[in-house]
Amino acid sequence: MKVKYIMNGGIKEFDIQPGEVLLDVLRRNGYTEIKGNCYMGTCGACAVLINGTPKTTCTTLAAQVDGAEITTIKGIGTITNPSPIQKAFVEKGAVQCGFCTPGTIITAYALLRKNPNPTEEDIKKAIDGNLCRCTGYVQQIEAIKSAAELLKGGENNE
User: Fold this and answer.
1) Which of 24, 70, 130, 153 has the fewest CB atoms within 10 Å around its CB?
2) Does residue 144 contact residue 104 with C-beta atoms inside 8 Å?
3) In the prediction, which pLDDT does 134 show?
4) Does domain 84-152 fall into CATH 1.10.760.10?
5) What is the rounded distance in angstroms from the CA atom of residue 55 to the CA atom of residue 127?
6) Quick one: pLDDT at residue 157?
């Protein structure tokens, strides 16, 4: 079976198997920035934006989102032109081992698009589904606060 997605702004078509999860389809097709870990939707490492909402790809059937707009971390910024949230994560040391980073940044990005002035509680609630074993979340929360300030100051790479 074939599915089409708008991947990071471009239309892509993929072959899928019945019952196959989106994580496996995307990683098999070169989207290795999406990390796989729990296959239960509990760690958030595989989060992407699906039609603007953060979702875990390990629990999303590939066929269910045929025609969807999917954004990975590479769709919000690049190494040469990082988004404010990516810059803030680096500056605040919120990228220690890096395994949770793509999913957490995707989640933070969605939060800041919906709520450009989040409280610390808003941030904690938003990233609650993203497991991080290295940072203790302190640096991630600071990075998200910093990104909100950068965005208020007009630095917006969207």
Assistant:
1) 153
2) no
3) 87
4) no
5) 12
6) 53
* pLDDT score, position 154: 67
- Homologous superfamily of 2-75: Beta-grasp domain (3.10.20.30)
Give whole-number Cα distances, 73 to 17, 50, 54, 77, 100, in Å. 25, 12, 11, 7, 12
Which ranges in the chain are annotated with CATH 3.10.20.30?
A: 2-75
DSSP assignment of 77-126 equals: --SSS--HHHHHHHHTT--SS-SSHHHHHHHHHHHHHH-SS--HHHHHHH
- Per DSSP, 62 falls in state G
Question: Per-residue pLDDT tens for 123-142?
Answer: 999 999 999 988 889 999 99
Q: pLDDT (tens digit, 9 = 90+) per residue, 144-157?
A: 999 999 998 766 55
Strand order of the β-sheet with 2-7 is 10-15, 2-7, 69-71, 47-50, 53-56
Q: Buried (b) or exposed (e) across 98-137, using 16+ Cβ within 10 A?
A: ebbbbbbbbbbbbbbeeeeebeeeebeebbebbbbebbeb
* Segment holding 12, helix H or strand E: strand 10-15
